[in-house]
Write a structure and sequence with these properties.
Blueprint lengths: L6 E6 L6 E6 L4 H11 L8 E6 L2 E6 L3 E5 L4 H13 L1
Antiparallel strand pairs: 1-2, 2-5, 3-4, 4-5
């Protein structure tokens, strides 16, 4: 199963800094978030983790939501997610 199957909803962010919010399905949220913890070498599970990568601000929520700021369009989002989940 691909990480894309885990995604429940994607919303474009409004405001000064462009980006996207990605919500994972409840039954896969822990798996989706734990993969990102491994990618960023985060050892402690916290309600919110903020990381920076390639000029992007990535907020990882324990609840199964990630917010990626600094993206202009959905193609950039998919490219970023593909990179993160293939690592």
């Amino acid at each position: 199963m691909s990480y894309r199957d885990y995604i429940r909803k994607i919303e474009k962010l409004c405001g000064e800094k462009k980006g996207f919010m990605v919500l994972f399905k409840d039954e896969y949220s822990e798996e989706a978030v734990s993969k990102l913890y491994k990618v960023f070498n985060i050892s402690r599970v916290r309600p919110l983790v903020r990381v920076r990568k390639d000029g992007l601000e990535i907020n990882i929520f324990r609840t199964g939501k990630i917010i990626i700021k600094g993206l202009e369009d959905e193609d950039e989002l998919w490219s970023t997610l593909d990179e993160l989940y293939s690592a």
